[in-house]
Amino acid sequence: MKQAFSGFSPQTAEFFLGLAVNNNKEYFESHKAGFEQHVLAPLVALARDLAPHMQLIDPAFETRPVQGKAIARLRRDTRFTRDKAPYRTNLWLGYRRPSERNSMCLGFFFDVSAFSVSWGMGMYGPYRPLMEEVRGHILQKPRKFTALVRGKDFIKRFELEGEKYRRPVLREGGEEVLDWCNRKYAALVHDQPLDASAFSPALGQAVKDDFILLAPLYRLLRGMPPIRIKD
C-alpha cells in the first residue's frame, strides 16, 4: 500500500546537517538508510499526493514521483562546476514541462533542507526568451493578472523574488505589472522553518492548497485558459 505524506521529522534535518559536514560517498553510504527513510520517502509520498492536482494544472508536467523526474537527484553533476561536493544539502520536487530545462523553466517547486521548507511557483533563474513570453501574457491581461496577485492570500502567503533590471523594460502600467515585468525572472515563494509544523500531514495540505491557489496565475503566465481545480 502506498503511504500518504505524514510530514518530515527531526531526522530529516540531522541527515542534511551531517551531510553538510561530511559531504563524501563514505558518509552517505553509511547513512543511506536514514536518507531513504527521512528524506526520500516523505518526498515520494508528497509527490504522489500532489500528482493528480499538478496534472490538472498543466497536463504537460512531469509528475512521476522518482528521482530524476519530479524529484531531484541528491547526487550532484560536478562536471562543469568548481564546487566538487558530490551531494546536495537540500532536495526538492520540481514540476515543469520536460521540454524545458531546470534552469530555464516556469513551474512549481517544493524544497527541503536542514533548516527550512519552501515552495512556490515561477522561474528558477534568468532566461530572457521565457521571461519575454511571461511578460507578454501579463500585458495581454493586465487586469486579470493584477486581480490575482493583489489577492489577500497571495500577499499573506508569498514573497515575490527575482532580479530586477537596472533600467526598466516597461515604464507604464500598474504597480504589480511593473514590478513583475521589470525583472529578469520572477517567482512567488513561501518559506518557513523545518520545525514541528513540518512534521505532520498538515504540511502536505498547505503545499497542495498553495499550489491550487497559484494555478490560475501559472496558467495566465502560460497563456492557458482558466480552469477550476477542486481540492
Short structural description:
Helices cover 43% and strands 14% of the residues. By secondary structure, the protein is of the alpha+beta class. The mean pLDDT is 95.
Task: Explain the overall architecture.
- This protein has 231 residues and is an alpha+beta fold.
- It has eight helices and five strands, in the order αααβββαααβαβα.
- The protein has a single domain, classed as 2-Layer Sandwich (BirA Bifunctional Protein, domain 2), CATH 3.30.930.20.
- The protein has a five-stranded antiparallel beta sheet.
- A hairpin with a 2-residue loop joins β2 (106-113) and β3 (116-123).
- α3 crosses α8 (202-222).
- The end-to-end span amounts to 23 Å
Q: Let me know the number of strands.
A: 5
Task: Please compute the radius of gyration using only Cα atoms.
Answer: 18 Å
Assembly form of the protein: single chain
Helix/strand layout:
Layout: H1 10-21, H2 25-30, H3 32-57, E1 90-95, E2 106-113, E3 116-123, H4 128-140, H5 142-149, H6 152-157, E4 159-161, H7 175-181, E5 187-193, H8 202-222
Helix pairs in contact: 3-8
Question: Can you tag this structure with a few keywords?
Answer:
five-stranded antiparallel β-sheet, 43% helix, 8 helices, alpha+beta, globular, BirA Bifunctional Protein, domain 2, 231 residues
